[in-house]
Each structure stands twice: as structure tokens, then as C-alpha cells.
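Here is an idea for our session: we take a single protein and study its fold together. To get us started, please write out a protein record for me. Once you have written the record down, we can walk along the chain together.
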Amino acid sequence: MICIRSIELTNVKNVGHGRIEFRDSPFGTRVTGIYGQNGSGKTTVVDAFECVRALMCGEPLGKSSADLIGPSSPLATIEVELEVTRGSSTSLGLSDAVGASVAQGQPFFVGYSFSFDAPDGQARLVGETVAVRSQGVPKRVLYGCGYDQQGRGRGMLPASRWRALRALAGQDAELELMVAQRSVERRAASKVFCDAMMAFALAARERYEARQAAGKLSRSAGEAYAGTLVPLMDCVTLTATFAKDKLVVCNTQRNAVLAFNVFTLSAPDSMQGPWAPGGPSSSPILRDVTLSVDKTTVVSAEVFQAVQATVATINRVLCQLVPGLSIEVRQLHDETLDCGAAGKRIEVLSRRGEVVVPFRTESEGIKKIVSMLGWLIDVYNDDSSCLVVDEIDSGVFEFLLGELLEVVSQRGRGQLIFTAHNLRALECLPSGCLVFTTVNPQNRYIRFRGSGASNNLRNQYLRAINLGGQKEPVYQPTNSADIDAAFFGAGCSADEDQVDFDDLLSRLAEGEGLLDLADAAAGAVPAADAAAGAVPATDASAGAAVGLTADAACADAADGGDSEVRHE
């Protein structure tokens, strides 16, 4: 089993520094919700996870990654720690590389951190570190690389171990690694999560075994191989497999695609529970299939069979979430693909009883539920599955959202990390499952103190917004009167910002405050009109600003506007 235990951000968008630890719930499940004000760093966490997933999969940082760098430094840093239990076989064929505790079923923790900048507007990876720790074994760095202030590479760390490994692998393997890493560097991809590092490790293993058999293995080479290279590649292989097959990041960009009737169907993984004895399944895993819902789509025969199986699985849950609703993928006719392979033209439909309509006619909320339902099925059944969702409540009915989260938090085996605005989750999840953003960029994420099992966390959160009482303020104050005045001012004509006294008085009659409206009116009266005697422009008092006494205004409001208005 692999799960994410923490993430730490430094100078990522509006997060100067923030750390979130993902804890188990009282039920032993792993669900974490992130709540907070708009623009306070919730989506930043999801964007950071997308960077982590991309690098661990050997992909380059996206074009938008440069926008993640915050204003306080030219460098952004992201660090995650993953927990690995029940040691698994890797491509090096070893399962106990980080100590006897792993072989005995104890967990160990893999830390991966990276820094990137954007000197020319394109993201550039400037440093990476892979470290490991376990119970009774302090954290130690297995791989590190970076640049000095002049932009020169500092080599791989720990330096003495990697010098011995380069000598062990031989000059040819070392040269191939250097050349390949230069290419990876230009693409802003990881130097350790890449095929070149694996090829280097396999070359070192071959020479290690040969020297050991011949009795010519030096002590430094043996220690570097067993103590650094083998645990590094075990950690890299396990976490890379986790990122490719188990980690899914659903950000707002994916949700926006639904608006264009492009439907991404998430397929549940057939492998459940712990890793298989021989590692992840060698058979292809259908993760996502992109289907157009406003027109028909041609897919291969293999994909069509997999989609049908996926739809059948999703429908078992969908009919319980939205009673009476199911989806269908109907085959229209056979068609040859551009590559010459046999294919099938299909259409996505939705069914309610005997009524069948195109799936494109469904609401955005239904589309989103169906789109991510396969992943939620994974999270419920697979203890290594991890789903990160931004705005999970978007388009989802409040009561249904609460039921979904309650079921997953009580009986789900995988990990769910989400952001939301709907406060329903605060009534359904244990307090330890919730993280709140603050207005302090240097301490962006906190958990509430003083929250017990019997506390209503929703009420506590609203109280913290209005009154404070937590380690950090969780809301930048807003004022309804200021908002009202801003709307009123925005509606004034740019050419003649005259005050509509009839409007002000009618609003006073409805119970609005005189002083608030007077202040708004004072700033809207032109000085020329004031000089002409319409309104005293220099009088700072609220009553003089509108040219009325409070008594007259109230009397007029009480009489329905018929009483005589006295001007001062």
C-alpha cells in the first residue's frame, strides 16, 4: 500500500509557506477536505499535486507551471512524503532495500522534493531530492541534484556515494546518463524518474554482481550500491508506479472540458488491495477514455469492450446516487480506424426507465458525477488509490455530497483529498479530516484546535470567520455595507455621477442605514453642483452630505414619501 502523508509548499502562487499532514480518520480511512476563502490557496494544493504526478510519471512540468511561482522568490519548492507498507518487488528484484523493518511489514517513508524557476517564462527544474526514513532509521538523502548561483550543476548527492557508483557502473554508463539527463533537463522533467536512471542502475547492478563473484568488489562500491542505489531505485520504482496507476488529479481544467461536451470516462482499476506479489499487473490498465458526447466517436474493439465493462460497474453505483439513471454506450456500426485496425462507432446515452436521451442533454452536475465515479469506486475499494479533486462540490447537490463523503470516510480503503466551498462536509467528516486555509501566507494551512467529536465543526468554522479564536485568522473580513456601496457606485454613470435622492429615500424606507447611504452619496456629488448650492460639498457630516436631516428622512419614509422634506 502507498499513500500520501504530507505536502509542503514554499512560494507556490499565494502560499508563502504551508504544510498539510494527511491523517487517518477515527475509522482508519484517509479522507481530507480543504476549506477556505476564495483565493486562499486551496486550488494551489491541487496544482502542486499535478506537478508531483507529472514528474513522477517522467513527464515534463506543464506550460502553466511557471505561473505557480509566487512573488516572494524566483524559486518555488514542493515536497511530498509518501508512506509505503508491505514492501513490494521492484524492477531491481529487491523488497527490503531500506532495512529489515520493511521486510517485517513496517512502513517506510519516501520524501520527494523539487524546486523550479522560470527565467525565460518557461518552467525549469533546478533541484530534486529523494530521501527515505523508517522506524528507528533517521531520514537520509538517497539522491540530490541542483545548481549553484551561477547556474552550474553541483552533481549528484551524496557526493562520495555517487562517485563510487559512477566508478562501479563504468564510463559508458556514466556518459549515457549525463547525456540523457541533459535532454531531460531541457524538457523540465525529472532526472531521477526517468529511463536513463534505471538504465544506469541496471548497468551498476551487472558490474556489482560480476565484481562480487570475482572477489574484486571494493568496500566503498558495495556500500554505495547496497545503501544508496538499491533503496533509491526501489523507492523510485514504487512511487512512479503509484503515480502512473493509482494517483489521479482532477483539477478545474478537467471540469471545464465537460462544458465543451468532451466526456472523460474514468475506468476503475481491476486490481484491488495490496500490490500483487509480482508488482502491478502487466496487463494494460484502462485509466481514462475521452469520448465526445455531442457526436459519435470511433474507438477500437478492445477499448469498446473495456468501456462497456466500465459503464456496467459505474451504473451499479450511479443508480443509487441518482435513482433511475443509468448510462449506455451504444454501438452504431463497425468502422475502420485510421491505422487500419477494426473499430466501432459508438454513442453515449443516458436512460431513465424507458426514456433514452443523448448524454449531452444531462446537467453539468450529472456529467461531473459520472466522470469521476470510476475514481471514487477505486478509492472505496483499493487501498493504494489516491484521488485529488478540486471543487468536488461543484454542481453536486448538497445532501448527496454529504452522503458520498460520509460513505467514503467511514468505509473507503483508498485516499481522497478534495477542496470545496459547500460546508456540508463539515457536518459529515471528523474534525481531523478537515484543513482550513488562513489569511497568513506564511502559515497557510491549519487544523482547528478545540474540536471534539461532539462539536459542530460547521458552527465552529462560521464562528471563527466572524470572531476568530484560532491560531490564525481564517477569513479576510468583508462588509455588506461596503459591498452595497460599491455596487451602487458602480451603477452610476461615468459622465454624470448624480445622486438619485428618490432611490436613496426609498431604500431608507426599506430599513437601510442612513449614514451608510449618506457616505455613498457624498462621494457621488460633483463639486460644481455643491458650489451651485445643490449640496454643501465641504460639509463632512453625513446629514449635510445628502442635504437632509435624519428626522425628515425618517418622517418621509414613515409617511410613504408624502411628508415635506426640510433642507438645511
Summary: The chain has 18 helices and 18 strands. The chain has a mean pLDDT of 80. The longest strand covers residues 325-336.
